[in-house]
Every structure is written in C-alpha cells, then in structure tokens.
Amino acid sequence: MDRAVQETDYDAFSCKVSAIAKHYLPRQVSGKEKEEGEFVQLHMAYAQGLKSVSRRAYSKVDRAVQSAQPVMNYGTYLRSVAIDEAIACFLKEHVKSGAEAPVQVVNLGCGSDLRMTQMLSQVPHLKWLDLDFKESVALKSRILENNPLFQRELGPSESVETAGYLTNRYCLTSCDLNDIAQVAEILKKFTTQDCPTLVLSECVLCYMKSAESKALINCIESFYKMGTWISYDPIGGDDSADKFGKIMQTNLRESRHLEMPTLMVYNSPEKYAQRFNTAPHSTSIVTMWQYYVQSVPDEEKMRLKTLQFLDEIEELEIILSHYILAEASWR
Amino acid sequence: MKVDETIALLRQGKQVSEETVYTLCLRSQELLMSEANVTRVDTPVTICGDIHGQLHDLLTLFDKSGGVENNKYVFLGDFVDRGFYSLESFLLLLCYKLRYPDRITMIRGNHETRQITKVYGFYDEIVRKYGNSNVWRYCCEVFDYLSLGAVVDGQVFCVHGGLSPNVTTVNQIRAIERKQEVPHEGAMCDLLWSDPDEVSTWSLSPRGAGFLFGRNEVDQFLHCNGLELIARAHQLVMEGYKEMFGGGLVTVWSAPNYCYRCGNVAAVLRIEDGLSREYMIFEAVQAQDDVGNAIIPTKKPQMDYFL
C-alpha cells in the first residue's frame, strides 16, 4: 500500500510536466515572465535528474506525458494554480515588507513538488519543511544534490543523513505521517511553534485511514499557535445517484492497488471541511470546477482554450467537481 | 474478406489484419460515397448517440435494442476516441453497414477527424495495436465520407452537434462539399460541434469550435424545415438523454460510465411509425455470450485521476 501511495507522486509529477509541455503551466501573469521561465527550467531540470537517478520512474513519467489528454492538463493547471494562489494569499497576510518576522511552510507528502525552490528565493524569511516517505525523500534529495541549478537556488545541503536535504531554511526529511509521535518530534526539531505556519497536503489525506488522518490533523493544529491548512483532495460525491467516487475507488484498487479509505466519508465539500477542527467561518472550500468558473480570469480561460481542443465540457465539470481545495485557518 | 467472419472477430474484441481493415475501409468508402450529405431514413428506427470506443457497451446496445438483424439504426457519430476499443467499434459498425446497408446510417461526429483522433486516443490505439499508423489513415479516409445528418420520415433531423448560423434549411446542408477533413469553422464544423443552451441567440461555444444555440434557433429551424425534432448527441448526459425546448430537441448519449469513470447511464431513442418516442436506458455491464461468459476479455484500463 505504501508503495502504491508513493508511486502516485509520479502521476502528479508527470501531470505537471505534461501541462508544462503543452503550455498550460505556468500561469501567465504579466510582469512575472522571469519566474515563469524559472518554473519551466526547474521542472525540466528535475525531470532530467529523475532520468539519471531512476530510469524506471522516468519512463513512467515519460509514458504518462505522451498520453495526457486535455481534461488532465486542465485539472493539473487548476490544481497547481489554486494551491499557488492560496500560498500567495497566506504569505501576503503574514509577510510584512521590511519586517523580520519569519513564516514557515510544512509540506506533507511533498513528493516531487518543487514549490520550495522559488518560494524560498522570493520570500527571505520563509522556512520550508518537506516531508515524505523515506524512498521519496531519498529520490528527491539525490536529484536536488546532483543538479547545479537546485544547488544554486537552495544552497548546498548540510544533511548528514543519506536521504534528506538540509540548509538553514530548507529541510527535506523522511517521516511516516501515520506515526504521530514521529511527526511531533520532527515538527519540534525543524519548526517553530509560535510562527505563522502554512500546512500543505496535496493528495495526502485521501490515502490515509480516517483515524490516522484525524490524529495527524489534531497533532498539527494543536502544535502551531497560528496556522492555515491548505489541502487538495478528491471527494467521492454525496448524491446517491453520483457514482464517480465508487467507480474511482474500484478503478484505482483494481489497476494499482491504491486505496482511498475516506473518499466516501468526506465525500462533499461540507463533509470535507469537518476534517478540520477550525471554526466553520475560517474554513473555506471550493471544488476545482467552482475555482475554474469563478477564479480563473477570462484572459486565462481564453488562453487555455487555444492550447488544445477541449471536447467535453460536461466531463470536465464532472471530474473537477470531485476535487476540492480546502483552506482552514486557526489561531 | 468475409464480412461475417470479421464481424465475429470484432465482436470478441480480436484484432483484424491490416489488409482486412484496408479492404473494409475501401468498400465502406465506395458505399458511403453514393450517400447524400443528409440521408433519408424511415421509421421505425433506433437513434444512438456517442459510442467512443466502448465496444462492450456497443454490444449491449445492440443486444438490448433488438439487434441489427431486425432493426434500423442511426448512429449520431463519435464512434472513436476515449474508449479502448475505438477501432473495433468503428469497424463493427462499418461491417454491419456493408452487411445490412439499409439498416445502418452513420453520421460523422467531431471526433471523426485526423486532428482530434491524434489528441484523444484513436491514433495512439492504432499505433499500440499495429505498430504503425496505416490503419488510422485508412479509417480517416472513411471519416471523410460519413454523412453529416439524416432525416427520419421527413420529421426528425439527426445530427451530431447541432445547428449553424450559416444553415437555415436542410437543403443547404445537402449542398456542402463534405468529403474533406472537418474545417475549423463554417457550416460543416458547426453541425459537428455546436451545443444547445439557454441562450437568446447564437453565442460563442466554450469548446472553441461551433456555437451555442437556443430555443429561438431551434424553433426557427424546425418551422422552416417542417420538422418536429432535432435528435443530436455530442454532450454527456448523466441520465442518458435530455429533451429541451419543449421537446423540440433531444440529446442522446450512448456511452454508459463514460471513459470508465463518469458513472452515467446511456440511452437510445426509438422512433416508431407515427413518430412516438421511446427511450431505452442501459448501464455499463460486461457484455456476455449466451452461456454467461464475457464476450471480450476485460483488459482493465488504467483510468486517469489526479493523484
């Protein structure tokens, strides 16, 4: 099971590479051309690094990129952009210009996510903690260490562990999220309790059992005095006629032994919000379809349309309505 | 090439030789060449929506609606792409058409084009199955000859997508030079790409091709051509079919659990003599032979999700 979950990182990464190859990502914002160029460079460098470190992983990514269809590219664009925007929003609130007050990000199940690279160079007082399975951390740290681009951006690693990366602002280390004692120990070692903290979980909670995910959330929400949890996950759907979630569970179980134990438990935006202990007014949830309709500017929608013929709006709506971005804040 | 033998192979999801596909496509082309842009069909007839390579479900469709041995069918296009048996589904319909020419009408969908099949799976399927793209090229040649519409008993206009601001009468469709790749704009494109919507006049389509049209456009077209109904496909409907504009237009969708992940049911529309409508709903099930064995061995596809 751990292996099946761990391999989902190749899906996430190949989706990203595909969306970049087809020019969905990065999002185009005028005046941000330099950052957009860096974004592409970093991901291409990581893909090359993956090729030299693990042929097997690379061929998986490569195959997936070849066959990625517009619905997947749209969904990847939205997932990536929605999370980026939520992070930017958090930083805007907590990083005051000129002030020295630190902020921190804890990325649970970080996988190949490369957000830390650009965020750390853009936000001077930011500290970033990346956590994942031991194997994923070993792979990622090898790629980061072997590439001059990441070396330059992140600074050389001082990690004494074979699997991990450590600088004064960035830490990548292995952690079993089902082991609360271990999680608590790592948070204590690498982060500060009274500093504004952003917790990021991108398709992480959905693979955990209900009790374990609850324990993880309780542990983190009680550890930090003030924080915001940003979580991206699928939801099964709560309409009795809606079979999307059940079919998804069956498909993933049969094709790759992947389980989503709580997909039909936290199956609607309302129920998903109940994962967090925060007050209802400080928890907001949008489905990716809502995000597409409400938050993507018209010029971006027009740009996306020119990239590939999108044949099925109805299918896109069904799929995107089963993925959410939650933002839960506490203090 | 013996059509009946090929039908038997296709029904089992088995691969047919490149030569057989070549012959089949050539003969189909000859047959389609003689058809008008808009075919005339008599009732009773069963109208079917998108198939998208879901061969198991196509077999279920024939099974539950009486079969081609005893019934006439109009297929509204989108035979290929997305599903895993695009080739077999398309060839099976061609074989049936060769075997029973007056019982199968095949209308072109927006997926029956070179450009779209390169993105949405049919091209990849062929390369995967044959190691080269010849069979894809043969099929694309056939696509260019598929008709653009049909009229049932002079009363029901069948088309894949919908109406076009450049088309007021069915006769104007008859004048289109159809034997070509679907253009990016114009009447032929719109017929394959447009969608009905709650709009007061022609509007831009979110798909990037074709238009959105509303009740006014439908009423006008029906009135102008002495029609009662526009039967079209092109849009996924969770309930299998959806009537709009006081019953003047219906969307029929015939691919259950679309893409093996959407969880929808499918429908076909039976039009009887006297134009009464009857919808037959069916779900995605493994098609079985008469002793309960799966007709096609299941190759469980790996569906795409965001993980």
UniProtKB/TrEMBL annotation, chain A:
<dbReference type="InterPro" id="IPR029063">
    <property type="entry name" value="SAM-dependent_MTases_sf"/>
</dbReference>
<dbReference type="InterPro" id="IPR016651">
    <property type="entry name" value="LCMT1"/>
</dbReference>
<keyword id="KW-0808">Transferase</keyword>
<dbReference type="GO" id="GO:0018423">
    <property type="term" value="F:protein C-terminal leucine carboxyl O-methyltransferase activity"/>
</dbReference>
<dbReference type="GO" id="GO:0032259">
    <property type="term" value="P:methylation"/>
</dbReference>
<keyword id="KW-0949">S-adenosyl-L-methionine</keyword>
<feature type="binding site">
    <location>
        <position position="202"/>
    </location>
    <ligand>
        <name>S-adenosyl-L-methionine</name>
    </ligand>
</feature>
<comment type="similarity">
    <text>Belongs to the methyltransferase superfamily. LCMT family.</text>
</comment>
<dbReference type="Pfam" id="PF04072">
    <property type="entry name" value="LCM"/>
</dbReference>
<feature type="binding site">
    <location>
        <position position="109"/>
    </location>
    <ligand>
        <name>S-adenosyl-L-methionine</name>
    </ligand>
</feature>
<feature type="binding site">
    <location>
        <begin position="176"/>
        <end position="177"/>
    </location>
    <ligand>
        <name>S-adenosyl-L-methionine</name>
    </ligand>
</feature>
<keyword id="KW-0489">Methyltransferase</keyword>
<protein>
    <recommendedName>
        <fullName>Leucine carboxyl methyltransferase 1</fullName>
        <ecNumber>2.1.1.233</ecNumber>
    </recommendedName>
</protein>
<feature type="binding site">
    <location>
        <position position="79"/>
    </location>
    <ligand>
        <name>S-adenosyl-L-methionine</name>
    </ligand>
</feature>
<comment type="function">
    <text>Methylates the carboxyl group of the C-terminal leucine residue of protein phosphatase 2A catalytic subunits to form alpha-leucine ester residues.</text>
</comment>
<dbReference type="InterPro" id="IPR007213">
    <property type="entry name" value="Ppm1/Ppm2/Tcmp"/>
</dbReference>
From TrEMBL, chain B:
<dbReference type="InterPro" id="IPR004843">
    <property type="entry name" value="Calcineurin-like_PHP"/>
</dbReference>
<keyword id="KW-0904">Protein phosphatase</keyword>
<dbReference type="InterPro" id="IPR029052">
    <property type="entry name" value="Metallo-depent_PP-like"/>
</dbReference>
<comment type="similarity">
    <text>Belongs to the PPP phosphatase family.</text>
</comment>
<dbReference type="GO" id="GO:0008287">
    <property type="term" value="C:protein serine/threonine phosphatase complex"/>
</dbReference>
<protein>
    <recommendedName>
        <fullName>Serine/threonine-protein phosphatase</fullName>
        <ecNumber>3.1.3.16</ecNumber>
    </recommendedName>
</protein>
<keyword id="KW-0378">Hydrolase</keyword>
<dbReference type="GO" id="GO:1903432">
    <property type="term" value="P:regulation of TORC1 signaling"/>
</dbReference>
<feature type="domain" description="Serine/threonine specific protein phosphatases">
    <location>
        <begin position="107"/>
        <end position="112"/>
    </location>
</feature>
<dbReference type="InterPro" id="IPR047129">
    <property type="entry name" value="PPA2-like"/>
</dbReference>
<dbReference type="InterPro" id="IPR006186">
    <property type="entry name" value="Ser/Thr-sp_prot-phosphatase"/>
</dbReference>
<dbReference type="GO" id="GO:0006281">
    <property type="term" value="P:DNA repair"/>
</dbReference>
<keyword id="KW-0464">Manganese</keyword>
<dbReference type="GO" id="GO:0004722">
    <property type="term" value="F:protein serine/threonine phosphatase activity"/>
</dbReference>
<keyword id="KW-0479">Metal-binding</keyword>
<dbReference type="GO" id="GO:0046872">
    <property type="term" value="F:metal ion binding"/>
</dbReference>
<dbReference type="Pfam" id="PF00149">
    <property type="entry name" value="Metallophos"/>
</dbReference>
